[in-house]
Amino acid sequence: xxxxxxxxxxxxxxxxxxxxxxxxxxxxxxxxxxxxxxxxxxxxxxxxxxxxxxxxxxxxxxxxxxxxxxxxxxxxxxxxxxxxxxxxxxxxxxxxxxxxxxxxxxxxxxxxxxxxxxxxxxxxxxxxxxxxxxxxxxxxxxxxxxxxxxxxxxxxxxxxxxxxxxxxxxxxxxxxxxxxxxxxxxxxxxxxxxxxxxxxxxxxxxxxxxxxxxxxxxxxxxxxxxxxxxxxxxxxxxxxxxxxxxxxxxxxxxxxxxxxxxxxxxxxxxxxxxxxxxxxxxxxxxxxxxxxxxxxxxxxxxxxxxxxxxxxxxxxxxxxxxxxxxxxxxxxxxxxxxxxxxxxxxxxxxxxxxxxxxxxxxxxxxxxxxxxxxxxxxxxxxxxxxxxxxxxxxxxxxxxxxxxxxxxxxxxxxxxxxxxxxxxxxxxxxxxxxxxxxxxxxxxxxxxx
Length: 449
Known about the structure:
The chain is an all-alpha fold. Among the domains are: 276-354, no CATH class; 367-447, Alpha-Beta Plaits, CATH 3.30.70. The protein is built from 21 helices and 2 strands. Strands 1-2 form a two-stranded antiparallel sheet. InterPro entries: 4Fe4S_Fe-S-bd (IPR017896), 4Fe4S_Fe_S_CS (IPR017900), Electron_Trans/Redox (IPR051684).
């Protein structure tokens, strides 16, 4: 028997506490809400709407009530027993959640007819907001936004002692609700393109594809503004903001993918793989995706300039291939469905071209860094445990070296979880970003991604 197997059979020094009666009550409401949504998915029209809205109400009340009971009376960051609970340590509950999430995404993308009973109850809301009946994407956007708001409330309670975390969480909740859900719907109601101002190329790649640009320009001055907005945000604002603030201004404050990871994905952030092998896969895959979208964009524009002579009828297929494998399977099915198994930033680490683009800017041109005070580090490992991007923060803290990694999204949880104030997020001058002591650490230089 191996050492790890023998160790895993030993009883915990402090057994995992059972949920209190009040916590069980709130969790029961969550379970009843999910059950009601399941009933709505299968019920006849007369019962469907009642079951749907009852399910959402119970689910919301239970999630917020449990969050208040769990974190409302505590101080500090509570990450106790995460590795001993079936729901947060890749146990049976985590696998069940992962299968359910993955299944939902698969049905949503390829067999939406099976979700018709969940789509139709939203017709009234969709008519009010968008001036048209609901569809699978309105269902998805509504569920997505609700998840960010509910789990954002949980995050606000859990990290309420940290001003940085409070403001950051409120920011992603605002951008998801206002600019990624309400505003696109209002634009549709006004017979304008459904435009998402919080997504830019290369993440929202089709906004700068020739077909996407042409489609937007057909909508007059507003369409031209949208095209200009996309170009400026991708090639001017992004480098400038990243220079001053690092990639956190987008990945942890604005982006909807990051917003879901920081709220709904927070219970799973410790599951990110910290091994060097994982970092090698991360670097090889995410920059390949970035390269692919850059080449795809360039080829499509060259093809358009030559009147379609370069790619011919394969032009659309070339773009759709990227959309299918990266936009649908990677970003959706794997990126969110695998939260309970691989952690909350699988898509951001391994597949997001925007994260890769921002990471290159952050590592080579930004003023952002996380400074460390090695003399105060007690090697507790809290910082590494909460890093959702797979960075072994403790190694830097022990040596007192600044953390300058392309992967770091600046969420600040390493600093928030540190009991000694060892880590600080800073936007200092470019001079001195790398300390002279780093030059003698060959291993450190190799792991800077």
